[in-house]
């Protein structure tokens, strides 16, 4: 073999060994870089899940729930009254208008005891019970009770109460933080509470939030009459004049 060929082979071997020495340390560096990138992606994904789990919707922070609610009204009674007055009658009828006769909850009439108007309140309480019976409430669903008045010199009211299933939310007016703390650009704690309360109070039937009602039966007689009118009427001349279709 000539010296030139031997020299060329020697140079080629040296170049290969040099490249291998360059590639070998580059492989661990590349692996470390890829691992760092994957770790960064994992951190970003974990942070997005944490931030996304924080509720920032008024429907979530102030949900409308269906639960029992104690409805009550206090009717003042004067010490000189003799029975139920006209204003008490109108107010009580308005309160009993929301009483569900199908559910028939217990109607409680609490009369004060030891107050200045004890005698007048007892007479008015009996009239309240008679008015409730006349309104359609069963006699055995009315309970007459007494409670001790705080002061013997004051005129305590008569409390009428019953339990009803209502759509409701939590009580509004919660301000745990300063409204000026808006660096996170999120709703304040009481945001949307009044809106949810107003919406819940307008629900005549709270079960409508759970699902649609069953469709009522079709009035077959009315449907037949409407179809007969449609058939007898035919097509008017005005329709033919305005129509773009030739029949």
Structural overview:
The protein is of the alpha+beta class and 247 residues long. Among the domains are: 1-49; 66-168, OmpA-like domain (60s Ribosomal Protein L30, Chain: A, 2-Layer Sandwich). Helix content is 45%, strand content 15%. The chain has helices at residues 3-52, 58-61, 86-96, 118-134, 193-201, 220-233, 237-242, and strands at 65-75, 107-113, 142-148, 158-168. It starts with a helix and ends in a 5-residue tail after the last helix. 11% of the residues are buried. Residues 44-52 have low confidence and may be disordered.
What is this structure, in a nutshell?
By secondary structure, the chain is an alpha+beta fold.
Secondary structure layout:
Blueprint: H1 3-52, H2 58-61, E1 65-75, H3 86-96, E2 107-113, H4 118-134, E3 142-148, E4 158-168, H5 193-201, H6 220-233, H7 237-242
């Amino acid at each position: 073999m000539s010296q030139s060929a031997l020299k060329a082979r020697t140079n080629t071997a040296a170049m290969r060994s040099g490249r291998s020495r360059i590639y070998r340390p580059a492989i661990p560096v590349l692996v470390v870089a890829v691992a760092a990138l994957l770790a960064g992606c994992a951190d970003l994904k974990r942070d997005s899940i944490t931030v996304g789990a924080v509720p920032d919707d008024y429907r979530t922070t102030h949900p409308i729930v269906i639960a029992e609610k104690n409805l009550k009204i206090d009717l003042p009674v004067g010490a000189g009254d003799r029975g139920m007055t006209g204003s008490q009658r109108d107010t009580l009828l308005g309160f009993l208008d929301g009483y569900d006769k199908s559910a028939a909850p217990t109607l409680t009439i609490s009369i004060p005891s030891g107050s200045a108007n004890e005698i007048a309140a007892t007479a008015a309480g009996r009239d309240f019970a008679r008015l409730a019976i006349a309104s359609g409430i069963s006699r055995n669903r009315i309970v007459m009770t007494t409670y001790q008045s705080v002061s013997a010199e004051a005129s305590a009211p008569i409390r009428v109460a019953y339990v009803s299933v209502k759509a409701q939310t939590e009580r509004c007016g919660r301000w745990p933080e300063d409204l000026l703390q808006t660096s996170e650009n999120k709703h304040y704690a009481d945001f949307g509470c009044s809106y949810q309360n107003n919406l819940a109070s307008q629900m005549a039937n709270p079960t409508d939030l759970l699902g649609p009602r069953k469709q009522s039966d079709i009035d077959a007689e009315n449907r037949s009459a409407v179809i007969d009118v449609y058939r007898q009427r035919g097509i008017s001349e005005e329709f033919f004049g305005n129509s773009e279709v030739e029949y």
